[in-house]
Structure formats: C-alpha cells, structure tokens
Amino acid sequence: MIKSYKTTNRRQFLKSLGLAATAFPFAVGCAFARRSFNARKKLRNVIFILSDDHRYDFMGFLNKPKFLETPNMDRMAREGAYIKNATVSTALCSPSRASILTGQFAHRHGVVDNNTRVPAGTRFFPQDLQKAGWQTAFMGKWHMGHASDEPRPGFNKWVSFKGQGVYSNPTFNVDGKQVKRQGHVSDLLTDYALDWLKNDREQDKPFFLYLSHKAVHAMFEPAQRHHGKYDDVKLEYPKSMANTEENYKGKPQWVKEQRNSWHGVDHMYHGQMDFDTFYRRYCETLLSVDESIGRVIKYLESNNLAEDTLVMYMGDNGFVFGEHGLIDKRHMYEESMRVPFLAWCPGMIKSGSVVEELIQNIDIAPTVMDIAGLKIPERMDGQPFLPVLQGKKIPWRDAAFYEYYWERNFPHTPTTHGVRTNRYKYIHYHGIWDIDELYDLKNDPDEMTNLIDSPEHQDLITQLNSRMFEWLEKSDGMLIPLRRDQGFRAIERNPEKIRK
Ligand SMILES: [Ca+2]
Known about the structure:
Layout: H1 10-16, H2 23-40, E1 45-51, H3 71-79, E2 81-83, E3 86-87, H4 93-102, H5 106-109, H6 125-131, E4 135-141, E5 157-161, E6 171-174, E7 177-180, H7 185-200, E8 207-212, H8 245-248, H9 253-258, H10 275-302, E9 309-315, E10 320-321, E11 327-328, H11 334-337, E12 341-344, E13 353-355, E14 359-360, H12 364-371, H13 386-389, E15 400-404, E16 415-420, E17 424-430, E18 437-440, H14 458-474
Helix pairs in contact: 7-10
The chain binds calcium ion.
C-alpha cells in the first residue's frame, strides 16, 4: 500500500529515502546546527541571489570557458564555499523556483511546467520569516505563470515583472504599481535591491533579500558595456556535439532526435540565433550578474553587515551548450541538472571551502528557516545545510532525486525520473519507447558510456530503480501530472537535417 506523505511524518519519510542510515542523527544534526548558530548570535540576515539558466561550470575560477571572467563569483568561492555537487530536482525555470520557495519537489508543489501558476494556498518560506519578524524583499523574476506580476505573499517589498520580462528598459511592478525604467534589467534589479537595503527596510530587524535575475535566460542580451566583449575569443565545442556514430553509441534515440529541434544544435531556437553568437552572448550576459554580486557584497562590507549576512548565489537550472548535440535544459545530464552554487559569509564560512555533499534547490527553504531559528515544517522535502557549509560532518543524503514532466510545448524531451549519487546516475524515462541510462560519473564525467546493459551493473540498477520508486511512492509522486494545452509549440524540424 502506498502511504501518503501527508500521513507520513518527516522522520519516517527521510528514513524511507535511506537518508543517513537513520533519521535520528539527522534530527540531532539539525538541533546542533541551531545551537551552534544561536550560540554565535551573529548570523541574522540572508541574501539569496538566483540567476536563470547559468550552468554549473561557467565560472572564471573553474577556467571554463577559458576567456570568461567572473571576479565576484571567484571571490565568493575564494573567500567562502563552493558547493560542487549542487543540483536541482527539476531542471526547468518555474518548477525549480517553486521548489526553492517551498522546499518541495515539483510533484508536491504542483508547478511542473513554465505555464502553471502556483496552486492557491501554497506556502512560501518568506511568509514564515515575515511572521517571525524578518524584513523580506523579492526583486526580479518570479516566473510561475506568465499572466501576473502582482505582489505575492511573504514579501515586505516587491519588485517584479510578468513571465520572462525583458532585458532592456523593463517595466516593473513595484509594490503593485507599474514603473517603466531605462537600462539593463540586471543593473536595475541590483539598484532596487541596494536601495531597499539602504533606505527602505526597518534597519533593526533581520532581513531576507531574494534577488532573482532574469539573466542569463535566452534570448541573451548583455548590458551595452559588455556587448561584443567576447566577439573574437576562440570557442571550444564539446566533444559530444558532433553527429557521429561514436557520440550516439548506447544513447537513447530521443537524444539524437532532439538534435533537430528547438533544443538541438541542428535547429536551435528554430534558427533565431547561430551557435557561436549564442555562446558569446550568454557569457557576456552573465557578466552583469557577476557585477551584481560584487555590488551586493561591497554594500555589505561598507555597512558593517558582512559578518552577519549569509550570501548565497545559485542558478535555477543548468544549461547545455552542445553536449550530446543538445542545448538548453530539462533532461538529467550533468549540464542541465547541476547548478552553480556559492556561499559567502566571512567569519562563518571558512575561505576556500569546497563542499562535496549533494545539495539541492529544495534545501534552500529549510536552510533559511533553520538560520531564522524556526521549526522546519513537515511539508518541506529538503534539509538544512548550514553546518555542511561550515565543514561540519552531519548525516547527509547519499542520493539526489530528479524529475521532469513532458511538455506539449517542447515535445522533444521525455518525462524523466532519476537518482544521482556522488558516483552514479540512473535515468528512467516514461511514456517513450526507448532505453534508460546509467553513468559512472567518476570514470565517465561526460556521460558518454551508457552502462544500462552492462552485466556487472545490473544489481546497482535494480537498487537505484527501487530507491527511485520508494521516493516517488512515499512522496505522492506516482501520478504523472496533466495540464491543459496552452502556449507556443516548438515542433518544427530543420528540413535540411532530417535523417534519411
Ligand atoms: Ca531557468
């Protein structure tokens, strides 16, 4: 019998996922984190900076691409923590954003595509912070549903726009009023954020600022000062980009088919942009996000706030630049599922920390709740990771779960569920006649050799399959969500590239 998550308590649920052998030490870990934090009585503010579609390895300090310079991200990593194995539970904008705000998997909060509004009654963790006396602000891209930019519950200050918004001269909804501004959206959002920090919040209360950038979502538009900066740099293409027999050996059929689609290199965005321009503009657009981080950190330092404010920088999902002939996100390959994640707070996080633990977007909400000294609600699926950032050994998950639901708008990527450990990734497809995948990430980080039929891996596949279904059963995930048809459909193929 499938036991409903609602009737399963949190401890049973975590235990069911095989977390930490038993859930008890995990609970001890949380209590310890809270004691540790309270004892310091220092950390009291959180700034969460989110970018859109920034892939995990495009940062200057990782030297990829070689020409890219992100001095402020580099500084966060150098002086704070670089969370190496950060992933999202769904690599798609709106589901991931809803997971960040609720601490829940997509099948639990219900936002499974980019068209769905958050169901009425959904609780966002800033509502709890506000109730506890925190000052809260949301600046930027909300993007759960396209129709409204109206203030959402949980924020003392609201600056947002409808759906994807625009890069240049945007109109914002500022606390319910439409305000037209001149300039680049990344700069303007940072201006709003700094203005709120300086002038608009109650200075004696702890604060939570959610700075949610539109950048670097397609169609990329760098700030004017960055446009063309990377026009002449040499681009390096991933080895798996070429349409060769070797590259597609053992791969599911849908991957090769997707080459010639909106999200494939043979017909990307139906020909609106060529690959090289696309790559250069993406990197240029990222520079304004990096500068935004720098301005926020500089403000904290000049106002004596650096010691008691945790700054986190994360991407809402990854981005594929030609790997396996694909672009964009949605699927479970590394470039799509992994995200950049940095944390900075001098005095609380040791400089140069590298975190190996599997941290996910669902962990942000419980972590901020924990920092605020609030009880982590039963409804949240994630775990608080502050002690992990501080290098403390606490019981932690040994597997991250993943889900993506097929969209009629972008029909080339199938419904996907999967499990990723630090070593292996198991990918399971639904509703398509194709093969599943298993990768050994240690020996094959580029996911080139599918081990799904390897005799010596069959026991592991059975185990991972079983863990995946246990997760879905225990968390009410055994139904495939269906939504009404709406919006654009990316169903064109490039006739010149159709396989004979
Ligand atoms: Ca996104």
